[in-house]
Amino acid sequence: MTASRHAPSTLQGAYATCESITRSEARNFFYGIRLLPPAQRSALCAVYALARRIDDIGDGDLPAAEKSRALAAVRAALRTPPDPADPVLTAVADAAHRYPIPMGAFDELVDGVERDIRMDTAGLTYQSFEDMVTYCRCVAGSVGRLCLGVFGSRPHPEAGRYADALGIALQQTNILRDIREDLLNGRVYLPREDLDRFGAELAVDEFGALVDPTGGLAELIRFSAARARDWYADGLRLIPLLDRRSAACAGAMAGIYRRLLEDIAADPPSVYRARRSLSGWQKAAVAARALSGLGPRPGNGTP
Ligand SMILES: CC(C)=CCC/C(C)=C/CC/C(C)=C/COP(=O)(O)OP(=O)(O)O
C-alpha cells in the first residue's frame, strides 16, 4: 500500500461518505461488499459511489444536454487531481493508489450512460444480442473489472474476461427485472431481433402494467434467462481465482442476482406489474452461503 496523499481525517470522512452512499443505495450488492475486509470494502464503496453518481446522471431529470455536460465533467475530473471538497473523487483517487483499479473502466461506464442518453434523445435501440452485450459491457462489465482491481486475483489470462462476463450476466438480469420500468421511461434494451423472433411487442395497459397477449414476452424472458445463465457460468470461473473474502463478495453479488434471474424465469409475468426483489432474509442467506465457501449453487442459484 502507498501512503495517502490526504490528511487522514479528510480521507476517513471521504471513505465514510462513500460507505454510507453504498449502504443506502446498493440494496443488493452491499450484501457482498460488506463481506470484504475493511480496506477493500472502503475501496469498493468508493468505486460503487462513483459508479452510482455516473449512473444517476443518466437516469436523472436533467435535460439531455446537461446530462452530457455532467458526464463530460466526470470524465475531466478523472484526469485531474481530485477536488478535496468532493469525497467520492477523493476516495476513488486514494483507492486507485492502493489498488490496481483500471480507471479507464469509468470512461467505459460513461460511454454506456451516453448510450442511454442517445436512447432517450435519438431513439437508439439494440438490433442484435451482440449490440446489447456491447452496452452491458460498458455499464456492468466495466464494474466487474473495477471490482477485480480491488479484489486482486491469482494470475490468470482470463481473469479480466471472467469479471467482465459476470458483470454482463448481472446486467442481463437487471434488464429482465426492469423491462417495465425502463419502458415507462421510454427505454427498451431487449434486442429487436429477439422481440421479433418471439412476436413480443412491449406495451403497457392503463395501469402501467406490461401486456403480453400472445405470451411471446414470457417466452422471450425465459429464453433470455437461459442465455444469461451461460454468462453466469462463464463469469463465475473467476471465483476460484480470488482470495476467500473476495470470492465471498463476488459470490454473494452473483448469487443474489442469479437467484433473482431464476425467480423471474420461473414466473415471467411477475415482472409485468412490479419490480421483483429478494427479501432481506433471502439475500442474507445467499451471502452466508457465499461466505461459507459454498458459493452460488450451480443450476438454479437457490441458496
Ligand atoms: C466481478 C464482479 C464482482 C462482477 C459484478 C460487477 C457488478 C456489481 C456489476 C453491476 C451491474 C448492475 C446490474 C448494476 C445495477 O446496479 P444497481 O445499484 O442499480 O442495482 P439494483 O437496482 O439491483 O439495486
TrEMBL record:
The answer to whether UniProt assigns keyword Lipid metabolism to this entry is no
Keyword flag Cytoplasm: no
Alphabetized InterPro entries for the sequence: Isoprenoid_synthase_dom_sf (IPR008949), Squ/phyt_synthse (IPR002060), Squalene/phytoene_synthase_CS (IPR019845), Trans_IPPS_bact-type (IPR044843), Trans_IPPS_HH (IPR033904)
Please give the Pfam families that the UniProt record associates with this protein: SQS_PSY
Quote the pathway field: Carotenoid biosynthesis; phytoene biosynthesis
What is the protein name for this chain?
A: Squalene/phytoene synthase family protein
Recorded hits in SUPFAM superfamilies, A to Z, give: Terpenoid synthases
Q: Which domain of life is it from?
A: Bacteria
Keywords (alphabetical) are:
Transferase
Q: Which organism is it from?
A: Pseudonocardia hispaniensis
